Amino acid sequence: MAEPELLLDSNIRLWVVLPIVFITFLVGVIRHYVSILLQSDKKLTLEQVSDSQVLIRSRILRENGKYIPKQSFLMRKFYFNNQEDGFFKKTKRKVVPPSPMTDPSMLTDMMKGNVTNVLPMILIGGWINWTFSGFVTTKVPFPLTLRFKPMLQQGIELLSLDASWVSSASWYFLNVFGLRSMYSLILGQDNGADQSRIMQEQMSGAAMAMPADTNKAFKAEWEALELTDHQWALESVEEELMSRELDFDGLFSKELPSGIF
Amino acid sequence: MPLIPWLGLDHICFKVTLFSTEMRDKLRKWREDNFRNSEQIVDVGEELISEHGSKLGDDIWIIYEQVMIAALDCSRDDLALTCLQELRKQFPDSHRVKRLSGMRLEALERYDEANKHYDAILQEDPTNTAARKRKISILKAQGKSTEAIRELNEYLEQFVGDQEAWHELSELYINEHDYGKAAFCLEELMMTNPHNHLYCEQYAEVKYTQGGLENLELSRKYFAQALRLNNRNMRALFGLYMSASHIAASPKVSAKVKKDNMKYASWAASQINRAYKLAGRGTKENKCSVKAVEEMLESMQITMS
C-alpha cells in the first residue's frame, strides 16, 4: 500500500531534529549534576543495618546450609524459628509508615524530586512546542490510529495527515525516554538523569518503606526457613575425592617467587 | 628498568628505580589485595609521596592512608605523623581520618586517648563499624582477651554479616582453647564462602583438636572437602591421613568403619608419596627424600594403646 510519502525539508533535520536531541541530552546531564548537589544523606539507623544483615544471614543459611554439619544447621534454624523465642518470632520492629505529611524529610525529598525532574520536563516541553510549532518533524516507523493525532500533532491542523507524522513536542518526549541508555553509558548506572526510573519509584509508592517491610520480611524469612531441609553436601565427599588422582599442577616450581616485586 | 646494584651487598638485593606510574600501580595492587607487606609499602610510598607527589592528583589521599598504616606497622612515627597531618588538613571532619589518628595513638600505646577518640566517633555515628573494631583491637593488644571476646560477641550480635569479625572471633576462641565456639564461627564463614578451601581446612583442624569419634569423622570429611576444593592443599592431605588413621586405630569402631578409614588413609599416604616424588623430580636426593616420607608416614601411624 503505497501512501504518498511526504518529503520534508532537510532544514528541518538540521535545525529541528538535531537541536532537540542536543537540548534533551544537555538538560539530562545538567539534571544529573543538580540532583547530586541536592542529594540529602540517607541516615540509616543501627537497627536497620542490623536487621538487613540478619536477613542476609538467614538467606545464606537457607542457601548454603548444606555445607555445614546437620547439627549446626538445626541449631541455627532453631535459633531463628523457634516457636517461643526464635528471632523471627520474637522480634517485632516498631512500624511507622512514613507518610509524606508526617515525615518532613520525605516531604523535602519528594519536592526535590519533583523540581529536578518533572518541572524541567514540562517547561522545556512547552518551550519546544512553542518554538518549533507549525510543522511536521518526523515520522514514527509504525502506523498509529487517528486517536493519537491530537496528542502527537499539536499545532498542525491537518485533518488528512497520517497520524504517524508527529510534531516536535513528541520528538522531544521520544528523546527523553530514548536517551536513557546514553545516560547510562556516559554518566554510569544510577544517574540522576534517568527519569523513567524515578517515575517508576514514585509509582511504586514511598520508596523508603523500610519499617513496614522489616516485619513482613521477617515473616517471609521465617516461612522460607521452615521449609528448608538440610541436604549435606559432604555425604560422599571422600568417595568423590578418591575417584581420581589429585592434581598437583603448579604446586612445585623450580624457583620460589622472589618477593612481591 | 634501570638496575642499580646496591654497593656492599652482593647479589642479594638490588635497589630498583621504578617510574612513578609503576609505583602507583604496585601500591594499588597491594591495596586491593589487602597485602600487609608494610616495609615495602613504606619504601615505595615514601618515595612516591616525596618525589612525585604532584603527579598523583586525587590518588594521593588514599596513598597517604595506605602509607600511614604501613608506617605505623614499621614504627615510622615521623612518616605516619606527616601523612596524618596532610589528611587532617584536607578532610578536617572526617571519621575515617579520626580513625587513623586513633590508630596512631594505639601504635604509641596511648590506649586511653585512642579509646576517647573512638567513643567520640561512635557518639556521632553509632553505625560506624571501623571505630568499634578498633576498640576491640585495643582490648586485644592489652591482652584482655575475655573482654575482647565479650565485646566482639556484642558487636557480632549487631553486625552478623561481618566476616572479618567472625574470623577474628574464631582466632580468639582458639587461643582460649574454646574449640566448640571457634567451630561455630568457622561454620558461619564456611556458609558465606562455600568455595574457600582454607575455611574448610581450618574447621577440620579445630574439629580434629576437639577430639572424639564424631568430631574426627567430621574433620575427615572437611579435610576431604578442602582437598576437593583445592587439590594442592598439602595440609588438608596430611590432615585427611591423620584423621582417617586416628579413626581406624580407635578401638570403638566397627569393622566396616575401620576398613573404610584404612582405605582412606592409605590413599592419602599414596598421594603424599606421589607429591613428594613430583617435588623431588630431577634432583639427586629424590630417593632419600621419598624414603624419608615413607618413614614419616609410618611414624605418624596411630597405634592402638
Automatic annotation (TrEMBL), chain A:
Coiled coil: none annotated. It is found in: Endoplasmic reticulum membrane. The chain crosses the membrane at residues 12-34, 115-136. GO terms for biological process: protein folding in endoplasmic reticulum. It is a multi-pass membrane protein. Keywords: Endoplasmic reticulum, Membrane, Transmembrane, Transmembrane helix. GO terms for cellular component: EMC complex. The keyword Endoplasmic reticulum applies. The keyword Calcium does not apply. Its main location: endoplasmic reticulum. Belongs to the EMC3 family. Component of the ER membrane protein complex (EMC). This is ER membrane protein complex subunit 3. The lineage of its organism: Eukaryota, Metazoa, Chordata, Craniata, Vertebrata.
UniProtKB/TrEMBL annotation, chain B:
GO terms for cellular component: EMC complex. Keywords: Endoplasmic reticulum, Membrane, Repeat, TPR repeat. Gene3D superfamilies: Tetratricopeptide repeat domain. It holds the Pfam family TPR_EMC2. It is found in: Endoplasmic reticulum membrane. It is a peripheral membrane protein. Its main location: endoplasmic reticulum. Residues 98-207 form the EMC2 TPR-like domain. InterPro entries: EMC2-like (IPR039856), TPR-like_helical_dom_sf (IPR011990), TPR_EMC2 (IPR055217), TPR_rpt (IPR019734). TPR repeats lie at residues 163-196. The keyword DNA repair does not apply. SUPFAM superfamilies: TPR-like (SSF48452). PANTHER family: TETRATRICOPEPTIDE REPEAT PROTEIN. Component of the ER membrane protein complex (EMC). Part of the endoplasmic reticulum membrane protein complex (EMC) that enables the energy-independent insertion into endoplasmic reticulum membranes of newly synthesized membrane proteins. Belongs to the EMC2 family. This is ER membrane protein complex subunit 2. It comes from Sphaeramia orbicularis (orbiculate cardinalfish). The gene is emc2.
